[in-house]
Amino acid sequence: MLTVANQQFDLLINGKSVAASGGRSFEAINPSNGKAFAAIADATAADIGQAITAARAAFDSGVWPGMTVVERGIYLKKIAQGIRKHAKELADLETVGCGKTLKQSTFIDVPTAADCFEYFSNISQELAAKENKIDAPVKSLTEREPVGVVGCIIPWNYPLIMSAWKIAPALVVGNTVILKPSALGCASVMRLAKIIEESGLPAGVVNIVATTDHAAASVLVKDPRVDMLSFTGGTQTGQEMMQLASATTKKLSLELGGKSPNIVFSDCDLDAAVGGTLSAIFMNQGQMCTAGARLLLEEKIYDKFLAKLIEKTQSLTIGPATDYQVNFGPLISREHRDKVLKFIAAGVAEGAQVACGGKIPSDPKLKEGFFIEPTILINVTNSMKIAQEEIFGPVLCVLKFSDCGRVATIANDNPYGLAACIWTKDLEKAAVVAKQLRCGTVWINTYGGFYNESSFGGYKQSGFGRTLGKEGLLEYTQSKHICTDKSPGGKPLVTNWF
């Protein structure tokens, strides 16, 4: 039984749950049936300004950065425990709010969020000062310090996981945070806000504000009191963020769009590659920045592989995301579904052919939800709009190749560079191709492995900066060089220069 009906979620500002100024709120919509299930406080520019004031005070007072890493880690552990304690409610909210299947929310999203807080609660040596070997009578140290106040903006497709990915490393190094989730699919994040409040975290250290007002959200980017912006979302929005942030020379970390190639060689394990291809494009209904949306399929196995892939795609059970028997739920909104349908129509207009799917399901039980059939397009060329632009939906574009030596060139012929898959039993060949690919993550004979120990991020228009791993942790720091003279007698040359 679901636990999420008729809830009210407030903002988290300065350690307290508060209503939005003026009492504004917006409805959270269940994509499976188009019905509202919660009301969420709708922050104004003034609310976001108050959140920034609180975060600034918590940092500048030293109450948070003045703690040791171990002391800060204790709070992260409490948040992880809170997530696990309320795991069922969070999974229900993630499913009802985003349309991802309950199986995925329960076994992937919620545990991953908790594990992220737990992992970063235990870091220590990564922030240790490094002594530099200098051929001079000095002691040279490079130290890592927090950036300050960090604004974090996340999209709607993985709200719990992305909240954890940003908040946990930013906090443990000593920053204070203002998190702004997307107005779509944010109910689980607003429930996380209550868990964070209950952890006893000092006031102002974490602030969570949802809003439908783009002008209000832009305050987070433009305000000079915010030292860094960590943004995950579309490339165009990321470019706008860069322009806005330039006025205050903020540090930026951007994880943007993708159009990931999924390269299948003829010497692959066929069943494994088919299964991996399905996951790469149809997990979360294709609403993933790393979705393997371009299938580069070697000609020798093209017909056999495609036949198995279409058969399995057509067997996927489409239905309400709350049904445990369902493995393919709705898209996030009616508007987004319309956008995906327009991409499919544009592909057909350019000469692509719909091999399966491509339309709204005919089942009358699904008519109120935002469903679309999982879609495979064939006869696709890499120059087509559908092969170059991010669709962010369950649409697989199949491209045939015969020259294995040129497949990396085809894969790289795209403005994005977030991730890629390679399927082959020849691991030496896979290693060669992996080095040729211009992207931040390459999975070989698997898909979608994200690990707290390993960094994630993009090349080209997929952004810059890293999440997770030591690299992701250090994104939320700045380095300081401390140079101490060790000259005999304490009088280096500079003291007698003039």
Describe this structure in words.
With 498 residues, this protein is an alpha/beta fold. The protein has two domains: 7-256 and 462-481, 3-Layer(aba) Sandwich (Aldehyde Dehydrogenase, Chain A, domain 1), CATH 3.40.605.10; 261-444, Aldehyde Dehydrogenase, Chain A, domain 2 (3-Layer(aba) Sandwich). It is 36% helix and 21% strand. It contains 15 helices and 23 strands. The protein has helices at 45-60, 69-85, 87-98, 102-121, 159-172, 187-198, 214-222, 235-246, 270-282, 302-314, 334-349, 385-388, 407-412, 427-436, 469-475, and strands at 7-9, 11-13, 16-18, 25-30, 35-41, 130-132, 138-146, 149-153, 176-180, 206-208, 228-232, 251-255, 261-264, 294-298, 353-356, 375-378, 395-401, 416-417, 419-423, 441-444, 459-460, 463-464, 477-485. The chain has a seven-stranded mixed β-sheet with strand order 15-16-17-14-13-19-20, sandwiched between helices. Strands 10-9-8-11-12-22 form a six-stranded mixed β-sheet, sandwiched between helices. A three-stranded mixed β-sheet has the order 1-5-4, covered by helices on one side. Helix 8 (235-246) links the parallel strand 11 (228-232) and strand 12. Helix 2 packs antiparallel against helix 4 and helix 2 crosses helix 6. The longest helix has 20 residues, at 102-121. The N and C termini lie far apart (81 Å).
